[in-house]
Specification:
The chain has 313 residues and is an alpha/beta fold. The chain is built from nine helices and six strands. Strands 2-3-1-4-5-6 form a six-stranded mixed sheet, sandwiched between helices. Helix 5 crosses helix 7. The longest helix has 37 residues, at 68-104. The N and C termini lie far apart (129 Å).
């Protein structure tokens, strides 16, 4: 028997076709279009979320959270970086502070006993000429340009060497001292050794001098004279005399230690023979001659002194 012109309402499994008819086909198309529209809308929403996350700096939904070990490592790196920055900043501040303090001290003090040649050294350094000098009763100061360089200069201050004046003037200028030149008469040293050692002792135990620790130069002057003692011999005898003076004063303190204001009671290292390397400042010895080998007409022998001034300026 033949079928009467209608088909089954369910498509076969092979072709999966819907029954013919306008309404069925239109419904199928509408449903498919709706599904496509929903898929596109969902993708657009996901893209919008990713764009917003990228703009705001927040992780996108696909980004996985940091693992605990990664978070700990990041925190450690940040801590180390902060500690290094703090350390560098502290070192920079300390360096600036030290440089500022040092640059504020521009005076070079010329000290020593009477007739040691301080004033003639002062005049020779400034003018290069010889001049007859007298015992000073006050200080003299002038700007000294190192190697004739206008940008590098120090203030030379010649202090009186008389016993009643030298400590008074030293107290006045010691805080501004960038360096100290202690002038010794190499010809009269054997006779004046105790006086030289006592003045040097008072200088070296001063609290301000010890705190600032300016470089100290022992200038063994008048080397143009045949009987002048060498700088090496003067250093050795000064160390022995200062050690004897230290032992004597530590056993029976006298007015020598209290003469200068703000003096310490110990010179060098306790229990050891004194030598200049025990001091906080650098001590150097040189030989020089302010008068020169040919007297008034000759040029002074101060090359080592000028080099030292250039080094500390």
């Amino acid at each position: 028997m033949k079928h009467l012109g209608y088909r089954s309402a369910r498509p076969s499994s092979r072709c999966a076709r819907w029954p013919e008819g306008d309404e069925s086909r239109e419904g199928h198309v509408v449903a498919a279009a709706s599904r496509v529209a929903r898929g596109r809308r969902k993708r657009l929403e996901m893209d919008a979320v990713e764009v917003t996350a990228a703009r705001e700096g927040s992780p996108s939904p696909q980004d996985a959270p940091l693992q605990p070990q990664d978070l700990a490592r990041a925190q450690l790196l940040v801590s180390v970086a902060v500690a290094l920055l703090v350390l560098l900043a502290s070192c920079l501040l300390i360096w600036i502070f030290v440089r500022t303090r040092k640059s504020s001290r521009r005076a070079v003090l010329l000290v020593g006993l009477c007739d040691s040649g301080k004033t003639l050294l002062f005049v020779r350094l400034l003018t290069g000429n010889f001049r007859n000098t007298q015992t000073s009763i006050t200080d003299s100061s002038a700007l000294y340009r190192v190697n004739n360089d206008k940008r590098t200069n120090v203030t030379l201050i010649d202090l009186p060497g008389h016993e009643s004046l030298r400590l008074q003037f030293l107290d006045r200028f010691k805080a501004a001292a960038r360096a100290i030149v202690f002038v010794v008469d190499s010809v009269a040293f054997q006779r004046e050794m105790k006086d030289v050692a006592e003045f040097l002792y008072q200088l070296l135990i001063d609290n301000v001098v010890l705190k600032n620790a300016p470089p100290l130069l022992i200038a063994c002057n008048k080397q143009d004279v045949t009987m002048a003692k060498s700088s090496k011999l003067i250093q050795q005898q000064l160390e022995r005399e200062l050690n004897t003076l230290r032992v004597t004063l530590s056993a029976a303190p006298s007015t020598l230690e209290s003469t200068g204001s703000g003096s310490a009671s110990q010179l060098g290292k306790k229990g050891k023979e004194f030598d200049f390397s025990q001091l906080p400042m650098k001590v150097e010895f040189i030989e020089c001659s302010a008068r020169g080998g040919k007297g008034e007409e000759g040029s002074a022998d101060m090359e080592d002194l000028e080099k030292w001034l250039g080094k500390i300026a």
